[in-house]
Amino acid sequence: MLTLLGLCFLALLGLAVWGGSGRMPRAMFLGCAACMAGLGLAGGLALAGGELPPTPLPIGPPWAPSLIALDALSAWFLLILALVGLPASLFAAASPPPPAPVARAEGAAFPLFLAGMAAVIVAADGFSLLLGFEAMSLASWGLIAARHPRGPGRRTARLYLGFAIFSGLCLIAGFALLAPAGLGFAAIRTAPPEGWRAGMVLVLVLLGAGSKIGLAPFHVWLPLAHPAAATPASALMSGAMVKVALYVMLRMLMDLSGPAQPLWWGLPLVAVGAATALIGALRANLEQDIKAALACSTLENMGLMVVGLGLALVFRGADLRPLAALALGAVLLHALNHAGFKSLLFLCAGAVASLAGSRDPDRLGGLIHRMPWVAGCAMLGAASAAALPPFSGFASEWLLLQSLIQGWRVAEMSVQLLAAATLAVAGMAIGLAAAAMVRFLGLVFLGRPRTPMAAGARDATGLMRAALLIPAAASALLAVLAAPMLALGGGAIRVLLGANAHAPVTGFDLVLGEVGARYAPWAVAGLLALAVVLIAFAVRRRSKLEPTRGPAWDGGFMPPPAHLPFGDPLSQVSAAGLGQPIRRSLGAIALGIVERHEVAPPGSALPAALRVEAEDRGFTHVLQPLTRLRRTLSREAELLRNLTLRVYLSISFGTLVVLLALVALLERG
Amino acid sequence: MLVAFGSLITQILHVALILAAAPVIVGVVRWLKARLMGRRGPHLLQPWRDLLKLLRKRPVLAESASLVSSVAPYLAFGATALAAALIPSFAQGMLLAPMADLVLIGGLLALARVALALNGHDAGTPFGGMGAAREMTFAVFAEPALLVCVMVFAVLAGGSNIDAIGAALREGAMGMRVSLLFAGLALVGVMLAENARIPVDNPATHLELTMVHEAMLLEASGRHLAVWEMQAALKLTLWFALLAAIFLPFGTAPAGSGPLAWAIGLGLWVVKMALLAFGLAFFESAVAKMRVFRVPDFLGAALLLALLAAALIFVSTGLA
Question: Sign (positive/negative) of CA torsion A259, A263, A264, A268?
């Protein structure tokens, strides 16, 4: 096990050097895929019982060797990383290489990004974990910055770097508070934080890991940064990197902070997660770029996972272990499912972008005729993302909704009301996700082509098709085998909730203990297939005529003239038009929207115009005030330069007195 | 063994019953509406006749239509039929009762809805896209209201299994509760939106700028249209059966009972369906259709009622 992990890490570092040289990028990415397969194998072996106890490495900081370990929780997330990393690497190998300097930078950063994420997951001490986290952040920044030497993309990269540094600092401070006895996880567990220290750890983890996950109000960078990178890197950021941050959150809040934390610990997580889910799902319906819409859908899913994590903390604090296991099972299973379908959807979007030439849905359309493989994969992924039974997303969201519905069992009125409100918000987010997925499929794959480029697109072939089929097959398997998979991850639940907790699973069904609610994915899939086949058979027995083709009736609209072979593109619904009902009814929650209707004066031949401008409230309410504050502070600081010597001396003296007083206070306390 | 056999028989009879009854219930609602408006009204079996006529016709697919137009109707009908098979009609304890989870039923309805919306997009016509966008928007408000209602029932019955909820409410241990009234009103609002009834949508119109459901079916014809019409009828029946199973569970044959109890349950089920059909027809005749952008307000009110029901039940059951 240790050999396998070590080989994979060394190979990834070697591949980074190779990629930096820019030679044979395709073989380098195939090597990354092999490393990912190896790490996935290690995760699978560890889940099947071959866990790796904390092992010191011959390297590390001066004060102690680095430790690595592979318990069930780490193994589960290693599996998630492999599930995204393998197809993403294959897709990278299949994509045409960018111009040389970009290719070299990406070739160096891509394996480093993978190695950083894997390092976070297998680290068993704070130092290695933070080192991996920073490597992950910097490498992913490099992947964005390499593609955008200037312009708005560069600003996005800078924004991302700012948030990455912020989350890194918060996590460093969090570990500093956790580790008076030492940075090793075993040492931290012997002295869990209490009182104000525990509260500060919660706040710092929420800020640090939370801003990496994209929790509101620190979500603004995510819909900009994730789509800005190349497609495989986008898939990794949206499918795996946010999960790594979720892993850090789980590890620090549920494992390292000890089991004795109070019930209210979960409440901020539930509230923030619900807000994130709603904002993300809303924005997924309003984006004009398919990759940005998918990144927003990541926000929604991560928000739901954080709700589940908060619920698990609440139930654990209320001593309702089976329900805590239910909520935690929902989080773990949804993390895995989301890794499958989101990498699938991102790779499909990347295939569309490279083969049909655009990421703007208003320049696509009708691709199901030209790219049946990509369209089929995208439909499977979208059905999973929309939480439709029997596809994979439904199983985990069913667990999450059930754990919210069972929220009334906590004997606290505030928790019950919060559970009811969160249930409403989660239901709304799931409905919005379904709307976003219908919008994605309808605009990109259905209907008529909107541009000649889309009309002439070719289907994904060879390695690119294989890269799509791997997560598609994983999603299909996870749909039917959700329960055995979660049972395999039962060890991860035991790591966090104690030895007598077990996954909410019986055989092939997901089951809620004594409550009697049950979801049997195999039965639903089988019955649904049976019903569809029987209905089709019965209908076709009575109705034998084969269909004919004709121009679309379209409520009596004229068929297009011969010189418009796919009809008038403008007579199809547009991306903005499709989002309009949601923008008008709910948009103001997430976005500050300004609508201006310019009517032409009487007698003028000018067209009337409706202009809609939208900006995320995270920008207007958080970032812009911060920028203003910084500007004010620097202006105030400028004033310090023109003081007299007397004032300078008194400022120094005052500072000295205050510091001495602080030291005296700390010595006494 | 006998119980298992009985559960299998009730399941088969139940599926046959709802499939046969669905178009008739649509016919009853249409007839009642016509009578209330002073017209004679069509025959009760007219929807069945329409379906058989449509099945004989040759379907015409739009040139830009893909496989979706040919597959979506069956998928939507299959999902709706499976959901309808889970909701008890005349007897409880059917074969699929352990699976009859309300969240799963909501998911199956969502599957049917997505299939319908994709069908609307498939031909690439403006009406279809517009209808799909509106349908998905309404669901955004309807789904949370349904889920919060499920939470209210779960507090009363312990879980979200509709069979268990019906059994718990039939025992009458709960008594009449204000929260159940609110939850019922919320569910009726959701039902009106899900079935595209007045005041959300008008099932009798084609080609109006306000239409939702019919807009997605403009390109369907022949057997595809027949399957869509049948799906809509089945969905209405499903919602009636759902309301009856939760709020009017009286007389339903309990699990493991014999044919006599089934017959009584069947008779009472017909009466309940007739009552609900009359209620729907009366309501639809009495109110006007609202503007499309008022619908979120209407469904938001349903959501608020559901949340109020949840809050009341937390207070009144003294769980806190």
Answer: positive
From residue B61, alpha-carbon distances to B56, B119, B220 in Å are 16, 12, 7
Smallest CA–CA distance, residue B210 to chain A, in Å, is 12
Angle at A321 between CA A275 and CA A298, to 5 degrees: 30
Torsion of CA B200, B203, B209, B215, to 10 degrees: 110
Question: Which of B225, B224, B223, B201 shows the shortest CA–CA distance to B211?
Answer: B201
Which helix (DSSP H) or strand (DSSP E) does residue A616 occupy? strand A609-616
Q: DSSP of A531-588, one letter per residue? A: HHHHHHHHHHHH--PPPEEE---GGGPPPPPTT-TT--GGGSPPHHHHHHHHHHHHGG
Q: Which amino acid is at B164?
A: A
Q: Which of A362, A438, A441, A580 to mutate to test the interface with B (most CBs of B within 10 A)?
A: A438
Reduced to 3 states (helix: H, G, I; strand: E, B; else coil), residue B198 is coil
CA distance B227 to B230: 5
User: How many residue pairs from chains A and B have C-beta atoms closer than 8 A?
Assistant: 297
Do A270 and A418 meet the contact criterion of CB atoms below 8 Å apart? yes
- CB-closest option in A424, A532, A556 to B307: A424
Domain ranges of chain B: 2-316
A512 touches chain B (CB under 8 A): yes
Bridge partners for A595 per DSSP: A612
Q: d(Cα A32, Cα A26) in Å, to the nearest integer? A: 10
A389 vs B66, B104, B227: nearest CB: B104
Q: Which residue of B has its CA nearest to A582?
A: B137
Q: What is the pLDDT along chain B (320 residues), one digit of tens a residue?
A: 778 888 999 999 999 999 999 999 999 999 999 999 999 999 999 999 999 999 999 999 998 899 999 999 999 999 999 999 999 999 988 999 989 999 999 999 999 999 999 999 999 888 899 999 999 999 999 999 999 999 999 988 888 999 889 888 887 655 557 888 999 999 999 999 999 888 888 877 765 556 788 889 989 999 999 999 999 999 999 999 999 999 998 888 888 888 999 999 999 999 999 999 999 999 999 998 888 888 999 999 999 999 999 999 888 876 54
Q: Which residue has the tokens 């008076």?
A: A180
Give the CB-side neighbour count of residue A206, counting CA atoms within 13 A.
23
Chain B residues touching A537 at Cβ < 8 A? none
Q: Tell which A residues from 191 to 220 touch B, by Cβ distance under 8 Å.
A: none
Judged by CB atoms closer than 8 Å, whether chains meet at B74 and A424 is answered as no
**Minimal Cα–Cα distance from B257 to chain A, Å?**
21
The answer to whether residues A352 and A374 touch, using CB atoms and an 8 Å cutoff, is yes
Instruction: Name which of A66, A49, A70 is nearest A57 in CA terms.
Output: A66
Contacts of A435 in chain B (CB under 8 A): 133, 136-137, 139-140
> CB neighbours of B250 closer than 8 A, spacing ≥ 6?
B170, B268
A:351-410 residues touching chain B, CB 8 A cutoff: 365-366, 368-369, 383, 386-389, 394, 398, 401-402, 404-409
A462 vs A26: CA distance, rounded Å: 14
Q: Are strands B60-62 and A548-550 parallel, antiparallel or unpaired?
A: parallel
Closest CA relative to residue B121, chosen from B77, B69, B82: B69
The H or E element that residue B71 is part of is helix B67-86
What Å distances lie between residue A579 and A157, A226, A437, A438, CA to CA?
28, 21, 12, 11
Residues of B whose CB is below 8 A from A443:
121
> In whole angstroms, what is the distance from residue A131 CA to residue A608 CA?
56
- Which amino acid does the sequence have at B86? L
Calpha distance B149→B186 (Å, rounded):
8
